[in-house]
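User: Second chain of the day. Same drill as before.
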Amino acid sequence: MPSAPRIPLLLGLPLMLAVGILLPLQGRVNGALALELDDAVTASLVSFTTGLVVMLLVTVLLPRGRAGIRNVLPALRERRFPRWYVLAGMSGAFFVLMQATTIGPLGVAIFTVAVVTGQSLSGLVVDRIGVGPGGRRRINGARLAGALLTLAAVVIALSPRINAEAEPGLLILLVLLPMLAGLFSSLQHAVNGTAAVAYGTPITATTLNFLVGGTTLALIWTVQTLAGGAAGELPSEWWYYIGGPLGAIFVGMTTLLVRTMGVLLVSLGMIAGQLLGSLALDIIAPTAGTVIAPATIAGTVLTLAAVVLATLPWPRRRPWRQPEPVRQATPAAQESPRR
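Assistant: Same format as last time:
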């Protein structure tokens, strides 16, 4: 198997930040399309459909993608993983639906902080159960402290809006939805990691995610349409349709960077890109519900610090051992024979 091309650190760091920015940019596009159509379900379905088209092209054009598709049925027959893992794309559908629903009233920064918080909390449970390919992992004090810090970050980032909001209960509900999407997202990543090992490539796991998620959204859209909830006409501007391809690019670049630079560094770099990119989007091009206050910035920075705290490989403390007593030499040993 050919090795992945090496990426220098000076090039890899800005690439990781750029890849992280793709997710809040995707969220802004999906949110704008939902506002344009006045229909979050249709906007989510459009995003998943365009992403599925991209992943199908990648699957057909790349030999690794074609080989992965041939491994799907054998993996299911041999039960290399629980069969319900193929439904992980439903979590992705929920995530995109929450993007389209809540980014407009919340803003990208608060949405991203809530999602990262959900991912941190879910990551503790997922690692403890051992859903991912790495098996069960110990929950240490640093990871627990990081998860609690992310909760505090959400409260800090949201505090200006709660004080000024006429209906704070509705605002809290809007924040809980992306947090729930983050909870499911960690489970989805763990399940996809296990499935990708069985398929031999993450391309196949990603393609099936788009297929299952798109099918789920298509069923919801059909029920909504039959109930008389048809959306407006699709806009003609091209940029409304880049949400799905942005998600596909994110997956491909993540795979390349992880193979050449390691999981830890890439995870930190991409989360930094998500948080800083979402804050920049809200400052440069705010939506109607966006509020940028010092508390918003503080919550974003605290979330990044919490992720660093939870992710860094802190050294384990070795058990204290009483020093062994120094053995005194015996008089016979002290006397060396002279010849």
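The mean pLDDT is 78.

User: Great, on to the next one.
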